[in-house]
Design a protein that fits this description.
By secondary structure, the protein is mostly helical. The protein has a domain of 55 residues. The chain is 62% helix and 0% strand. Helix 2 packs across helix 3. The longest helix is centred in the last third of the chain and has 16 residues. The chain is elongated.
């Protein structure tokens, strides 16, 4: 390593398109992760992405978001099951 570096020719992130895009995405609350998926699941995500003209990562994000938004609290599910069982018992 050098003791000193010359940054006089350096560019700002906003002047480099792909870095500016990454920085903008991170300011939206996105985080880069590494994960492993089954090959068949990845193939399905990619196929759906092609059919919807989106990237597979966007499709995955949308599916996860939809799952968590529609998920009912456990208490609501238990109440529903108990009501159904009480109707059967009556």
């Amino acid at each position: 390593m050098r003791k000193e570096y010359d940054f006089s020719q350096g560019k700002r992130v906003n002047d480099i398109p792909h870095l500016a895009k990454l920085q903008a995405e991170n300011s939206k609350g996105k985080v880069r992760i590494t994960t492993y998926l089954d090959t068949d699941v990845l193939d399905l995500l990619k196929a759906r992405g092609v059919s919807e003209n989106k990237g597979y990562q966007t499709v995955l994000n949308e599916l996860l978001r939809k799952q968590f938004e529609t998920e009912k609290p456990l208490e609501d599910i238990l109440r529903k099951v108990i009501r159904e069982e009480l109707k059967k018992a009556a």
